[in-house]
Amino acid sequence: MSDRVRPSPILDHIVILVSHDILLDLDNRVQRLFNLMPGGTHEDGMTSNKLILFSDGVYIEFIAFYADVDPERRRKHRWGNLKEGTIIDWAFTLPPDGDFRPLSGRVLDANVGISYEDPVPGGRKREDGTTLKWTVSTAKNALGNAIPPGYLPFWCLDKTPRDLRVPYSVEPHLTQHQTGVRGISALLLSVPRKEIPSLTKAYDVICGPAPEDQVWHYEVPSGSTAGRNTISISGTEGDAAITLVLNGLNCGQVEILPGIIFKVE
Q: CA-CA distance, 93 to 136, in Å (whole number)?
């Protein structure tokens, strides 16, 4: 498939790391703003989650490590050393019949010093006992070291129907939020300036050449075009960061947890 007709990748979800105590109390903390969907325990037994589903089919995942997880095991986890109370990562996905191999091959063939690992199995069990299965692929550099979470998307590729993992269309009441938020409008990524040239080339391969300088478009699962549906990167001399802009009926700001503030447009 040529670049000209290749579909845009699909934004799947955004990950916020919290402490396990906050995850347990999350209903009380966000119920005036958003409806929460129960999550479950992941296959490795280290983490559990809760979700905010949006009508565009994207969701926010609150994930926490269990308090009794062995510290050494946690340190080896992709997210084990990251700061709690922050947006730490985000994922693209593909349509149910999508093949990840051509995409990962294009990234490798671009010779930008970035590649995606072969997808590895993952999953969790919902509170109702339903087992969810997927595979995950993360980016690495030319030395084979993991690229820090958030610089590039990881890929979450369902093996069981996505509606079981993200029932936004079969349980639409979960997407009706008090804030009027309908989905994700934009992701703003701040990364070290030295990383921008290689990341720009990688995003050009993944999303297609940027129609604006360092701004790329993505699709959402519902096909909605209500939001901007853009990803942009900018350079920083400080810590890397992910900022979300939400799409909603009411413009303004939403502080979902102390220090985590979303603009709504």
A: 9
**Are 140 and 146 spatial neighbours (Cβ–Cβ below 8 Å)?**
yes
Which of 95, 41, 57 is closest to 174 using CA atoms? 57
In what helix (H) or strand (E) does residue 68 lie, and over which residues does it extend?
none
Per-residue pLDDT of the chain (265 residues; tens, 9 = 90+): 344 345 579 999 999 999 999 999 999 999 899 999 999 999 999 999 999 999 999 999 999 999 999 999 999 999 999 999 999 999 999 998 889 999 999 999 999 999 999 999 999 999 899 999 999 999 999 999 999 999 999 999 999 999 999 999 999 999 999 999 999 999 999 999 999 999 999 999 999 988 778 999 999 999 999 999 999 999 999 889 999 999 999 889 999 999 999 999 9
Q: Catalogue all structural domains in the chain, each as residue range(s) with its CATH number.
A: 10-165 (3.10.180.10), 179-264 (2.60.40)
The β-bridge partners of 64 are 48
Long-range contacts of 43-47 (CB under 8 A, 24+ apart): 43/121, 43/122, 43/123, 43/124, 46/73, 46/74, 46/77, 47/77
Helices 100-109 and 196-207: crossing angle in degrees, nearest 10, is 140
Whole-structure pTM value:
0.95
